[in-house]
């Protein structure tokens, strides 16, 4: 970038994509500020495990100069993929090739990945407790960001990395996320190898899926002896309201889930009854495909703010990180912010459409009347 004065760059959201963007910019001597709604880096859990794919997530980490640090913390064994029938029998089991020490797409816990990225930034880069209320255009391509704590900041470029319900996106697009028809109820098992050896064995070292007739279980091994469980079902977005269910009533949620999964193996039902962390209702949403917008001076999007999709693509975090790296690289390589935005969005939009279409197909096949057969055919073909 060859502007006479350094542009003021504000990234909204300290997720993987926003942090990669900030890291690559700083590696090239460009100042950036990241604003995040969380009160601190430890204010909440960061979710499950992610596989970093060579041509997206790993490519972004390489651009950030962090690939070796990532590989030192990753879990190659986490790439094990297992399919189980509703009767508890293992139908398919695939391990990473022994010849590939990374397993192709090694896994890392979201929390560890976020810590790796945060620790790579200049101290003070992230402004915690900055929950965005709205972005005010100032008429000259610059914008003022307003936060709930009463403070504000002006920027020559605002990067919306603020997730599914992005407030930055509202200035570029009228699109809003739409319910996919599938809800996950998340639970967790701690100290699983000692307290739940049968479930630990069934899960393996990576991800176990049991899918049948619009329902399913996804169990994912995390580090520290933790297994994260997603109990999935194709259902009404507000299924719990129709059932008169209080989601804070752990016992009632447990009984409701067991009733939904009548006839499933006792081993699989134990993922519900053995949960030590309570239950979190997570309806899955996606943005319309394609999601496009007119290139606008001083504004752009990355990650879920740009292309929210179901987790059945495996691409969400990977694409967000590649978005962040590509945007930063465009800002380095082009003489003006507007030229950088145009070049970045030209690459972003086509690949996000392809991934989002794949994600929509993935969730539709995973939660279908014949999902067990579809999943087995897909895994056999893929591996």
Report on this structure.
- This protein has 383 residues and is an alpha/beta fold.
- It folds into two domains: 9-77 and 101-176 and 287-365, FAD/NAD(P)-binding domain (3-Layer(bba) Sandwich), CATH 3.50.50; 178-286, 2-Layer Sandwich (D-Amino Acid Oxidase, Chain A, domain 2).
- It has 13 helices and 17 strands.
- It has helices spanning 16-27, 57-63, 67-73, 110-119, 192-195, 197-203, 239-242, 250-260, 266-273, 304-307, 316-333, 337-366, 371-382; strands spanning 9-12, 33-35, 49-51, 81-84, 90-94, 107-109, 126-127, 132-137, 143-147, 152-155, 157-160, 178-189, 207-212, 215-221, 227-234, 280-286, 299-301.
- The protein has a seven-stranded mixed beta sheet with strand order 5-4-13-14-15-12-16, sandwiched between helices. Strands 7-2-1-11-17 form a five-stranded parallel beta sheet, covered by helices on one side.
- Strand 1, helix 1 (16-27) and strand 2 form a beta-alpha-beta unit.
- Helix 1 runs parallel beside helix 4, helix 2 packs parallel to helix 11 and helix 11 (316-333) packs antiparallel against helix 12.
- The mean pLDDT is 92.
